[in-house]
Amino acid sequence: MQLEGKRIAILVEDNYEDLELWYPLLRLREEGADVFVVGSAAKDVFRSKNGYPVRSDVDASDVAAEDFDAVIVPGGFAPDRMRQIESMTDFVYDMDRAGKLVAAICHGAWVLISAKILNGRNLTCVAAIKDDVTNAGATYLDQEVVVDGNLISSRTPPDLPAFCRNIIKTLTL
Questions:
Q1: Residue 154 to residues 15, 55, 102, 161, Cα–Cα distance (Å)
Q2: How far apart, in whole angstroms, are the C-alpha atoms of residue 123 and residue 109?
Q3: Which value, to the nearest 10 degrees, does the dihedral of the CA atoms of residues 140, 142, 148, 152 take?
Q4: What is the 3-state composition of the chain as percent helix, strand, coil, each rounded to the nearest 5?
Q5: pLDDT tens track of the chain, all 173 residues?
Q6: Domains of the chain (ranges plus CATH)?
Q7: What 8-state DSSP symbol labels residue 144?
Q8: What are the C-alpha distances in Å from 131 to residues 109, 113, 134, 141?
Q9: Per residue in 67-91, is it b (16+ CB within 10 Å) or e — as a string?
Q10: Which residue in 27, 83, 107, 130 is the catalytic one?
Q11: Is the model's pTM score more than 0.90?
């Protein structure tokens, strides 16, 4: 129970990538973290790109950086919706500004771009959006996981073990 007492937010919207939400959610709970699913509405059901449901615990407009140790942005096409929700991008910006852990996988980097936190950073993501990442001022690295200070990123579901190991390691330092 390495993460007992840690509070982690996982952002959600419709069309999330199943594994990129559920794997970290369950793995981090297994380590004792309090993990909250944060959507555009509280107690709403969001469906993955394969139709798998998840219920949000809290509305993004009701979260604050001072209440969390980390935020995780899963991929799929949900980040295209998330980046249009000001409370979500503001939350990611505030978490980064506070030096708290910001983790993104796959298309999750879109939210980091819209939060304007990538300039001068190193990052990985799904190759399809690497141009978006570099245009936002980041250096794209094709690696299973990239750690740049408080920022952790991975490419796709096969990278999830390394992604979660680094999240756990960073939160226990």
A1: 19, 24, 12, 10
A2: 8
A3: 110
A4: 40, 25, 35
A5: 899 999 999 999 999 999 999 999 999 999 999 999 999 998 999 999 999 999 999 999 999 999 999 999 999 999 999 999 999 999 999 999 999 999 999 999 999 999 999 999 999 999 999 999 999 999 999 999 999 999 999 999 999 999 999 999 999 98
A6: 7-171 (3.40.50.880)
A7: S
A8: 11, 11, 5, 12
A9: ebbbbbbbbbbbbebbbebeebbbb
A10: 107
A11: yes
Copy the structure tokens of residue 148: 């740049």
Residue 60 bears catalytic tag: no
Residue for token digits 């615990």? 57
Whole-angstrom distance, CA of residue 36 vs CA of residue 55 = 10
DSSP character string of 24-92: HHHHHHHTT-EEEEEESSTT-EEEBTT--EEE-SEEGGG--GGG-SEEEE--BTHHHHHTT-HHHHHHH
Q: Which residue's entry shows tokens 């939350």?
A: 91
Separation CA 165–CA 136 (nearest Å): 27
Other Cβ atoms less than 10 A from the Cβ of 51: the count is 7
